[in-house]
Amino acid sequence: MFIVKGEQFAKERLTWSKPFDKVSDCDITNGKIRWFLGGQLNVSVNCLDVHVAKHPDRIALIWERDEPATEVKVTYRELLETTCRLANTLKSHGISKGDRVGIYMSVSPIAVAAMLACARIGAVHTVVFAGFSSEALAGRIQDAQCKAVITCNQGVRGGRLIDLKSTVDAAVKNCPSVQHVFVAQRTTNPTPMGKLDIVLEEAMASECAECPPEPMGSEEMLFMLYTSGSTGQPKGIVHTQAGYLLYAALTHQYVFDYQQGDVFGCVADIGWVTGHSYVVYGPLCNGATTVLFESTPVYPDPGRYWEMVQRLGINQFYGAPTAIRLLLKYEESWVKKYDRSSLKTLGSVGEPINHEAWEWFYNVVGDGRCPLIDTWWQTETGGVCIAPRPAEEGAEIVPAMAMRPFFGIKPVLMEDKGKPITGNDVSGALCISLPWPGMARTIFGDHNRFVDAYFKPYPGHYFSGDGAYRSKEGYYQITGRMDDVINISGHRLGTAEIEDALDEHPAVPETAVIGISHDVKGEIPFAFVVLKEDSSLDQAAVVKELRNLVATKIAKYAVPEHFLMVKRLPKTRSGKIMRRILRKVAMEQTENLGDVSTLDDPSVVTEIIKAYAQYK
Ligand code: ATP
Ligand code: MG
């Protein structure tokens, strides 16, 4: 469809300073992807100026600050002015087109303005989640060779203050490329300032509120972003201008059934791709009102999301399974006491959503009234690739299934030897056979790694790294990462399937299953189980029930041979379970855990190693 309609979409939906003359030029075998060649545009113009021209006082951002009921609204006109001042500040400090700028800030209007200011002058932003350690931050700044870093003095999250500036100080000591550190003032607490440091608000005050946009070629870099690091060393994924923006905007509209006037609530952090595409670029390109969520799902209590939905009148709510699994442990009254009648669409992203979480989100939060869409995509895909699109189809949604490819996306399931699997009711490696405008263009500084990781495994196709099942009806279900597929006596099974069955147990909010090698069976499943905090629970009885659940829902051979009760699971800072760490624990290879810089809380690992030692 993009081949046919791409031209029309790109012309209608984007504002160009120079029209493109060729829709695409791609050679997927060599990882060469180019869209809308010869054209020039500026992403910030498409996200701001075009809307200011029509409705300057429309609300662009609602900043839902950590403390409830202290939200701040920012109009399109105000956001454009702030962006221009910030862009001029960067320019005055020698930052120009092509320079990389690190952004290490909590979610706020000034952080969004920082992204758009880079886009305005053609600088390349790389947002690093403001929870990463100084080493992880330094590694990313060094890899990107950032010329400047934009940060805040402190972050505020869950009622706690986080010293962002001191983390940046420690990081940039080892980053000679950094010439300036711009420091926005999120709190009034004093911050020690060094010779690289500039108070952002002061510098912006003396700058002009207009900044001519840099005309950018469609295929020049817009941003780079490091992946979550669930499977290994994070990669600096590169996205370019026109194709990315068009894909983010179209998916934002069609996947979530966004209508003009809606308040779009994606609670992801801007440090992840979800924040880029569905907090910032997609909604702003569509002239939407987008929510910036600074807090956590349980601050000040587990009703936070739904109190916010009521207060801000949120129409689309987009979140992650990890938060849903956390919230369903609490009384339903935390949801029910708030008016959620504004909600029209619910969405989930980041991990496979298990049935229990899906049902709770759909029935308790959505009162069985709002379509709940499971959206599958990746940092590399730029936007949603597989999701139900209920508005358009007007049809059924199968629970916990991503179901339908987006326009222009051609999923193919591959068998081990690289042959496409035809027919339905089949599983395989999830690939995409045609290029689309939103896909990543390269890994920063390492195109060979890009080609090797995504295009070599199945020549002529983009390989996602995930596995999927195509149902009898032809719908797609993500079965988890290919690395997490286990082979038990010749039966291939995604660990997500076993987890989904285990999670059904009322005393079990969350589980992680991995495969360990076995002399006879090849591999056997090993389950790490988080139990509800309830001292009356009989663990042996729970294990017996868990065995039964897997045996009846999947098959006897899928029943884990080991059940280890743990307090928490190791997760990335974006909330994804890091199964590779669990595999190391169960294989007793903890002396070499690999890259753990993206791990949220390293003490979880020590906790689990101890629990394993006792279990053994
Ligand atoms: P890394 O590539 O560094 O290991 P990552 O894959 O976690 O990190 P992201 O790009 O943030 O980095 O996440 C994309 C991955 O998240 C997908 O490949 C998939 O495994 C998982 N995912 C995202 N959405 C879904 C979904 N709806 N259902 C199942 N899995 C999902
Ligand atoms: Mg990945």
From TrEMBL:
Any one Gene Ontology molecular-function term assigned to this protein's record: acetate-CoA ligase activity
Domain Acetyl-coenzyme A synthetase N-terminal: from-to ranges: 8-47
Name used for this protein in its record: Acetyl-coenzyme A synthetase
Primary enzyme class: ligase
Coiled-coil portions: none
UniProt family annotation: Belongs to the ATP-dependent AMP-binding enzyme family.
InterPro entries per record: Ac_CoA_lig (IPR011904), ACAS_N (IPR032387), AMP-bd_C (IPR025110), AMP-bd_C_sf (IPR045851), AMP-binding_CS (IPR020845), AMP-dep_synth/lig_dom (IPR000873), ANL_N_sf (IPR042099)
Keywords: ATP-binding, Ligase, Lipid metabolism, Nucleotide-binding
